[in-house]
Amino acid sequence: MRSVETFRDVQSEATEWRRYLHQNPELDYQLHNTATFVAEKLASFGINHIETGVAETGIVALIQGEGGDGPAIGLRADMDALPIVEASNKPWSSQIPGKMHACGHDGHTAMLLGAAKHLASTRNFKGSVALIFQPAEEVELPSGGLRMVQEGIMDRFGISQVFGMHNMPGMEIGKFGICDGPIMGSQDDFDLIVKGRGGHAASPHRAIDPVVIAAQIIIGLQTLVSRKTDPIESLVISVTKLNAAQAYNIIPDHVEIAGTVRTLSPDLQDFAEREILAAAQGIGRGFGADVEFKYRRSVPVTFNHTEGTNLAITAARNLVGPASVDDNIRVSMEAEDFAYMLETRPGAYIMIGNGPTAGVHHPAYDFNDEALPYGIGYWVKLVETVLAA
Prior knowledge:
Layout: H1 2-5, H2 11-23, H3 32-44, E1 49-54, E2 58-64, E3 72-78, H4 105-122, E4 128-134, H5 144-150, H6 153-156, E5 159-168, E6 176-177, E7 181-184, E8 186-195, E9 199-200, H7 210-226, E10 235-243, E11 250-251, E12 254-263, H8 266-286, E13 290-299, E14 302-304, H9 306-320, E15 325-326, H10 339-344, E16 347-353, H11 372-386
Parallel strand pairs: 3-4, 3-5, 5-16, 6-15
Antiparallel strand pairs: 1-2, 2-4, 6-16, 7-14, 8-12, 8-13, 9-11, 10-12
């Protein structure tokens, strides 16, 4: 634990940065104030190689170590907020109505800034560190992570390995969690339109009621998991949107259904795409209706590579001790667009404890500033582990 104390010197300053960002949240790619704030801080640390405008408002900054030639590794933090009305009642609550940092990206940005300040002053490593400040993690395709990859940051900055970190409510402050292989699920999204024949609600026999058919389809989709998938494998199919008529006495012509699919396996993605359509069409045609179907593969599985995972575990254990690092954390079916970076370069994604706070994407959530020195320390230890001089 003594090693964590090294990074408490910057905690007060990092807390100020974090709370400023929390009060001034911005969404998706519209991170103009956030990006300016980050770039100015990086420049104040003496970092000269700062590239802005990556994927519109993203930033990549390069710190060269003083230990001689070596590879470059990437450290990524996401910066965007969510369209949620804040209910944390903190003195530093959002000052922008309808927007808040409900996922802790303000904390992720502050931790990477804190690590940047330390690394720029010590440079106790060989090679270089690419600090990746990403926009638009919370949006649908194309997300910021995908666009940064498509714009060639891995090749442009010579990044050989890439690492990410996310806070985890419910995990104690000072603890970390990680696992080899899949750590977060893929995200696919689907839309179904059930086309029947509308009419008066008092005369359902003259209509082909798409509301009843949609209800049958929603129930039917649940059996794809419970009866057609190996129970040892992970598949989630959740219907999340339903849009029908807007009046009490109308049977509509069509009903719109939408939902999400989460899994850890490309084969199950193929299965879901094929079987959702087959089930919906079968049920719809049985009642005399037609079905339109769209399926989008939004985010791949976040897959930790073995070498990167072991390096991350070593760095975290060097910071907080073996007992505070769970190296076989339970896999989450939430999705994360850092997956695109891990598809192009080996590396790993780690979870850091946020304490007993509200969950992410909740109006009462707030990043726990007590986690800042642990996150800053992890980044520094990781760099000094991977790029040991």
